[in-house]
Amino acid sequence: DADVTQTPRNRITKTGKRIMLECSQTKGHDRMYWYRQDPGLGLRLIYYSFDVKDINKGEISDGYSVSRQAQAKFSLSLESAIPNQTALYFCATSDARTGADQPQHFGDGTRLSIL
Amino acid sequence: AQSVTQLGSHVSVSEGALVLLRCNYSSSVPPYLFWYVQYPNQGLQLLLKYTSAATLVKGINGFEAEFKKSETSFHLTKPSAHMSDAAEYFCAVSNPTGRRALTFGSGTRLQVQP
């Protein structure tokens, strides 16, 4: 089983719909992150959470919200989807106990298309 | 603030040739630096990381990178490319003293020609 699981893997929806992307992890990590990937732009940070009660905006949080339901679960919501939110979304985790040099562990991504 | 610039969005090499993927960083404090690889339809996997120990860092699959403070660079190399190295590669920087997550470069897609 994957350590970081994202659901769904693919989603096509219409403008204005509410979308939720889910992420769960079995690594026991405290920190969880949501990124979006666009061609030529690399990965950009949307939100990150250092524990259940510590949630922070990233560089492109407008139009998104998150919920850290438990240490192992971190969901990303698009309240009213728009076409320029079409992208590949990644969840990642890292171990807070070992500091900023710890690499992040990524899920396989959710490909979201908004028509 | 921190940032990463990857020079060349696409690099093509012949099988067996040297691979060189360029990464320059900007950081207000001595950074930690990472290289990740992304194969099609997969997430990112860590290749190697620099965390202020040895400046020449060896990673998986024969890759290595050298931290050069004077040039603010962290270029990724591999002496001999293999077809299986075809993927997208991302350089990333983090601030050892901050709470922020990684900042990624825009990526370099490596093609390996037979």
How is this structure best described in words?
- Chain A has 115 residues and is mainly β.
- Chain A has strands at 4-7, 10-13, 19-25, 31-38, 42-51, 54-57, 65-70, 73-78, 87-94, 105-106, 110-114.
- In chain A, the strands form 2 sheets. In chain A, strands 2, 4, 5, 6, 9, 10 and 11 form a 7-stranded mixed sheet that branches.
- In chain A, strand 7 and strand 8 (73-78) form a beta hairpin.
- Chain A starts with a strand and ends with a strand.
- The mean pLDDT of chain A is 91.
- Chain B is mainly beta.
- Chain B is built from no helices and 11 strands.
- Chain B has strands at 2-7, 10-14, 19-27, 32-38, 44-50, 56-58, 64-68, 73-78, 87-94, 103-104, 108-113.
- In chain B, the strands form 2 sheets. In chain B, strands 2, 4, 5, 9, 10 and 11 form a 6-stranded mixed sheet that branches. In chain B, strands 1-3-8-7-6 form a 5-stranded antiparallel sheet, with no helix packed on it.
- The chains are: A mainly beta (115), B mainly beta (114).
- The interface between A and B is medium-sized, with 25 and 26 residues.
Topology:
The complex is a heterodimer of chains A (115) and B (114).
Chain A: E1 4-7, E2 10-13, E3 19-25, E4 31-38, E5 42-51, E6 54-57, E7 65-70, E8 73-78, E9 87-94, E10 105-106, E11 110-114
Parallel strand pairs in A: 2-11
Antiparallel strand pairs in A: 1-3, 3-8, 4-5, 4-9, 5-6, 7-8, 9-10, 9-11
Chain B: E1 2-7, E2 10-14, E3 19-27, E4 32-38, E5 44-50, E6 56-58, E7 64-68, E8 73-78, E9 87-94, E10 103-104, E11 108-113
Name the assembly state. heterodimer
Q: What is the helix tally of chain B?
A: 0
From the N-terminal CA to the C-terminal CA of chain B, the straight-line distance is 41 Å
Strand residue content of chain B: over 45%
Provide the residue-averaged pLDDT of chain B: 92
Number of helices of chain A: 0
Task: State the shape of chain B.
Answer: globular
Unreliably modeled segments of chain B: none
Percent of residues in helices of chain A: under 10%
Label the overall shape of chain A: globular
In terms of DSSP E residues, the strand content of chain A is over 45%
Q: Give me the strand/helix succession of chain B.
A: EEEEEEEEEEE
> What's the alpha carbon Rg of chain B, rounded to whole Å?
14 Å
The poorly predicted ranges of chain A are none
Residue-averaged pLDDT of chain A, rounded? 91
The greatest inter-chain interface is formed by: A-B, 25 and 26 residues
| Main beta sheet of chain B | 6 strands, mixed
